[in-house]
Design a protein that fits this description.
By secondary structure, the protein is α+β, with helices and mostly antiparallel strands. The protein has 2 domains: 253 residues, Zn peptidases (Aminopeptidase, 3-Layer(aba) Sandwich), CATH 3.40.630; 117 residues, Alpha-Beta Plaits, CATH 3.30.70.360. 30% of the residues lie in helices and 26% in strands. It has 9 helices and 18 strands. The chain has a 6-stranded mixed beta sheet, with helices on both faces. A 4-stranded antiparallel beta sheet has the order 12-13-9-14. It has a 3-stranded antiparallel beta sheet with strand order 4-5-18. Helix 1 crosses helix 3, helix 4 packs parallel to helix 8 and helix 7 packs across helix 9. The longest helix has 20 residues. The radius of gyration is 23 Å and the shape is elongated.
Length: 377
């Protein structure tokens, strides 16, 4: 097993499930043990370490490689440290298993594979006593990407600036310059309660919501399919949850749905909310509409002709930018003025699955590609 694969195995064996997915005080919860391990690994390579407190007992870890002379630009490596949970907790999720060129375990590709590749590349570069002439490289292990993205939001709010952020995600070693955004909305209809034997005396909120759901999933969805982005395809909507009524013999006076609206670059959240309100009015329907506290991230679109992006393209021999459907911390960092791309080993198809895995040749390839890029700085 190579040094990078061994590092990934050690990371998998340290549970860092986002607390949003576990009961309070669950021993598998939180990123701090991984942050401490990453810091200790970097410290042995002579790198500078800083913890950035974000939430109680949850900190981003920042690892810095300073240039030979004055800092003129900054490269940010930004994978996230948290993972989702799984039905097997505590089971075998955190027992790394190597088989047929693959390494299995929770976080293997999302995104501890990126953590291992980026950290290994940075440590190898530092241990070789190499320094970019004027570029500072910062590894930022971020918390909470799988829930509210508190880590990237705190980093963006700290005032840190970068000329390019490479956000670790399983992209199969492709440089991704665009991704969709997400907006989660809560829609609520109100009716009038009545006895189930006299439904004509009430006003059924579930029936009103059923008409709204049908409208969103048919006419509105069809309208979105004509909005297309060259890398991302079309915008989408999904009604993911519905709750209404209490029992069969009462006309329900309230119904609520949660929707997932995937946005394209150029679509603002206020624009989306206003167009849904307008659509409902056009069909004589009404509902209270509000964003949820989580589930909001802007789309990403980074100019592939930006200088550092072009250098990264050339060093990886990639000729055209790529796009992905999912959102990431890159949307948050880009909104704060840091040009951002996604890059990392693994395939998103394996993320969040019970047998999550990563191809070891991709893990090694990611480290090699990053080292080659560092050499151009």
């Amino acid at each position: 097993m190579t040094k990078t694969a061994k590092l990934l195995s050690e990371l998998i064996a340290l549970p860092s499930v986002n607390p949003a997915f576990l009961p309070a005080n669950d021993p598998h919860s939180g990123e701090q043990r991984v942050a401490d391990f990453v810091a200790a690994t970097a410290r042995r390579a002579g790198l500078q370490i800083e913890f950035q407190p974000v939430l109680p007992k949850r900190s981003n870890v920042l690892i810095k490689l300073t240039p030979r002379s004055k800092v003129r630009r900054r490269l940010l490596l930004a994978p996230h440290l948290d993972t989702v949970g799984g039905a097997e907790v505590p089971g075998t999720l955190f027992t790394p298993r190597a088989r047929t060129g693959r390494l299995f375990g929770r976080g293997a590709c999302d995104t501890k594979g990126s953590v291992a590749a980026m950290l290994s590349a940075l440590c190898h570069f530092a241990e070789g006593r190499k320094r970019p002439a004027h570029t500072e490289i910062i590894f930022a292990g971020l918390i909470d990407e799988e829930s509210g993205q508190a880590g990237s939001r705190a980093l963006a709010a700290s005032g840190l600036k970068a000329d390019l952020a490479i956000v670790g995600e399983p992209t199969r070693l492709k440089i991704v310059t665009a991704h969709k955004g997400v907006l989660w909305l809560r829609l609520e209809t109100r009716g009038k309660a009545a006895h189930g034997a006299r439904p004509e005396l009430g006003r059924n909120a579930v029936h009103a919501m059923a008409r709204i759901v049908d409208l969103l999933e048919t006419k509105y969805s069809a309208r979105l399919r004509v909005r297309r982005h060259p890398l991302l395809g079309h915008a989408t909507i999904n009604v993911g949850s519905i709750q209404g009524g209490r029992q069969p013999n009462i006309v329900p006076d309230q119904c609520m749905i949660l929707i997932d609206r995937r946005t394209l670059p150029g679509e603002a959240n206020t624009q989306v909310i206003n167009e849904i309100k307008k659509l409902l009015r056009q069909h004589d329907l009404s509902a209270q509409i509000s964003p949820t506290q989580s589930g909001t991230c802007g789309p990403l679109e980074t100019n592939p002709r930006q200088q550092l992006v072009q250098q990264f393209f050339r060093s990886t021999r990639q000729t055209a930018p790529a796009g992905v459907d999912y959102f990431s911390d890159a949307g948050v960092l880009a909104a704060a003025g840091m040009p951002s791309v996604l890059f990392g080993p693994g395939d998103i198809a394996q993320a969040h699955t019970p047998d999550e895995w990563i191809a070891l040749n991709q893990l090694e390839g990611a480290q090699e590609m990053l080292l080659k890029f560092f050499g151009t700085l």
